[in-house]
DNA sequence: TATTTTTTTGGGAACATTCCCAATATTGGC
DNA sequence: GCCAATATTGGGAATGTTCCCAAAAAAATA
């Protein structure tokens, strides 16, 4: 089916396509009457500009790619919305991709985004990603890249993260202050920078408070919940089991909570549990889950702003920025009995 | 910054751009050696095809727009993933838009998708949408449109829904069978076809079981949770309050649950509650929420398949399909005490 | 009215690719 | 070694737009 073009309009009006083009854009050099006639006919003919042709000649698409590893949990959609709103203010559209935690899909998506000539990329990589060549290609071609949440520390690009180290430190210190001595950590894979940082925070909090680091109590896993179940049971079966668990994220913590319930353990008396990310579910279950909360909306907004800033800066003058947003500890019933929710920043 | 083009490759190899083009695509008429040389140089020069130019000349983008009203809740992301996987099998990419429940944003998004020449559209409209002109434009231009979940019944296009009427009927009948006599309904806005269908199911279930329809017990609202809170309190303050509540969706039902707890009511004894959609949270809270479950993944898959089918059919021969997927009632503690989860189809 | 200035318009290259058709090179049969 | 058949290559139009530059028209000035 034929789509109306500026040439159709030009022909019907007996004027040149240049004039139609000017009338349709905000160009000043058109007679007001001519513009009026063009606009009316365009409306009548259902004219829609062809962004492909425009992007081809102007060499910019006004489109930003956002790639996330998944978007079932509340976290990534919220970040996307934050970024999208920020970008929309400057007239940018957004293509959302999810890599499904698959390195291969991530590479394929990166290729597709490159092919559709996005003006920039906002990305959180998969847990499988060890090689970042596919993102470096963007850099080489002068297309701004901003990482968030799961960042590539080796690449010299802007990124936004939360203070994973301090969040973890604070969480573990809270457990220590409430009397726990054997604190386990279900960590994420060491491919993720945030996972590594949380692990460091856990370790340093123990050391700073004179507690030993027992390797038996630290398990790094691939965030597959079925395995979380197994590992929690393993920890609780130890001859000298933990009295507290700090989990990489809320889903893991919730899984631990369910395991504890199943084994007839009392939370927080027999096992205190802390998560990370303040999933909406965490405040609704019984007991409420103590967790490290992140400013999710701001994460997205900042990512958007970083990209916009880079987009309006000369390549030579550009210096990458690394933004770290603060976390806060939300204390609920999974660590302190009969406690109404409390926030500790 | 200059991006490598087939002309660059052609020049460096001393051959024509036609040959390079053939080598880069799956075209048979190229010498194997030539193809090899082209592929190697392309790799070396970081060549990425320019999808804009390709789409411009081939007049198809292999891109499908998916527009949803929001994607914080688990529902829409899951549908998107289902559709995306189906479309990916046939080599289609996806642009995801969310209208943020705003009619204006929806219209703007539709324009942008039209401008970027998507090959098709999968959409669930906002709760504000009464005028569907912006979607009819797609139809007029021969671009396939598939509605899901929130459909426009007035448009002659394919759509996928769940059996809202029967889901609601079954839910209300379950409440009646467990002895409830005054069943309230917190309905959605009447702009949504699924909201209207659920309301009808509610009404007919009451009538079929010889119960009166009390207009006092039916409240239609805009799905803004803050208002749900107010309305639930209003219902419970009635001189003759309801003994059960059927809510338009799970978030509404959860809000009701929280209100009931706050007022010291026992659920399900004082107030039984049923939701719609089986949100992941619903099985985790205490008591578990009885709810109408929908085959969410299948919704997305079917939407994708419908679109693909239309894409490969002549416009003249095409006949819209309307698929209705079955729902099932999941019975939990919010309607039956001490009941382990049970599914009734 | 003639000339200059300003406003408005038109022509055509450029963007990166596909694809048709013609031209050239290679191969096979005799 | 010649001719036909086949394989491979090149040339150039076409896609829908922007944008520069020149041309034409209109308005302002003398």
Account of the 3D structure:
Two copies of one chain form a homodimer. With 345 residues, chain A is of the alpha/beta class. In chain A, β1, α5 (75-89) and β2 form a beta-alpha-beta unit. In chain A, α2 packs across α3 (32-44). In chain A, 42% of the residues lie in helices and 17% in strands. Chain A binds chain B through residues 1, 3, 46, 48-53, 55-56, 61, 63, 71-72, 74, 77-78, 80-81, 84, 93, 95-96, 98, 111-112, 114-117, 137, 140-142, 254, 280-281, 284-286, 315, and chain B through 1, 3, 46, 48-53, 55-56, 61, 63, 71-72, 74, 77-78, 81, 84, 93, 95-96, 98, 100, 111-112, 114-117, 137, 140-142, 254, 280-281, 284-286, 315. Chain A binds a DNA duplex (30 and 30 nucleotides) through residues 3, 5-7, 15-19, 21-22, 25, 27, 29-31, 34, 49-59.
Layout of strands and helices, then pairs:
The structure is a homodimer of 345-residue chains.
Chain A: H1 6-13, H2 17-24, H3 32-44, H4 51-58, E1 63-68, H5 75-89, E2 93-98, H6 103-115, E3 120-123, H7 133-140, E4 145-148, E5 158-162, H8 164-177, E6 183-187, H9 193-208, E7 218-220, H10 225-237, E8 244-247, H11 250-262, E9 272-276, E10 290-293, H12 296-311, E11 322-325, E12 328-331, E13 342-344
Parallel strand pairs in A: 1-2, 1-3, 3-4, 4-5, 5-11, 6-7, 6-8, 8-9, 9-10
Antiparallel strand pairs in A: 10-12, 12-13
Helix pairs in contact in A: 1-2, 1-3, 2-3, 5-12, 8-9, 10-11
The structure holds a DNA duplex (30 and 30 nucleotides).
């Amino acid at each position: 089916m034929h789509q109306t073009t500026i040439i159709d309009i030009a022909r019907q009006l007996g004027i040149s396509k240049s004039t139609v083009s000017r009338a349709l854009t905000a160009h000043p050099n058109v007679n007001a009457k001519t513009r009026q006639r063009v606009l009316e006919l365009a409306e009548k003919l259902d004219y829609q500009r062809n962004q492909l042709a425009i992007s081809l000649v102007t060499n910019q698409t006004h489109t930003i790619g956002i790639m996330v590893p998944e978007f079932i949990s509340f976290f990534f959609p919220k970040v996307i919305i934050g970024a999208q709103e920020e970008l929309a203010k400057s007239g940018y559209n957004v293509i959302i991709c999810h890599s499904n935690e698959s390195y291969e899909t991530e590479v394929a998506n990166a290729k597709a985004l490159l092919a559709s000539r996005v003006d920039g990329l906002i990305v959180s990589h998969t847990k499988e990603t060890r090689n970042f060549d596919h993102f470096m290609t963007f850099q080489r071609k002068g297309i701004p890249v901003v990482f968030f949440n799961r960042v590539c520390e080796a690449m010299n690009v802007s990124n936004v993260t939360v203070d994973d180290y301090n969040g973890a430190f604070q969480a573990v210190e809270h457990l220590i202050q409430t009397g726990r001595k054997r604190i386990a950590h279900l960590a994420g894979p060491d491919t993720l920078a945030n996972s590594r940082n949380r692990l460091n925070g856990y370790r340093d909090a123990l050391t700073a408070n004179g507690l030993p680091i027992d390797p038996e109590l630290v398990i790094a896993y691939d965030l597959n919940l079925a395995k979380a179940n197994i590992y929690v049971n393993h920890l609780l079966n130890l001859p000298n089991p933990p009295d507290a668990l700090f989990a990489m994220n809320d889903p893991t913590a919730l899984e631990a909570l369910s395991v504890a319930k199943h084994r007839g353990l009392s939370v927080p008396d027999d096992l205190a549990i802390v998560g990370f990310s303040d999933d909406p579910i965490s405040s609704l279950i019984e007991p409420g889950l103590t967790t490290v909360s992140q400013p999710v909306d701001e994460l997205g907004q900042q990512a958007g702003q970083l990209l916009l800033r880079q987009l309006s800066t000369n390549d030579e003058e550009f210096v990458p920025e690394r933004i770290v947003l603060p976390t806060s500890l939300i204390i609920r019933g999974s660590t302190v009995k009969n406690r109404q929710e409390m926030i500790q920043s």
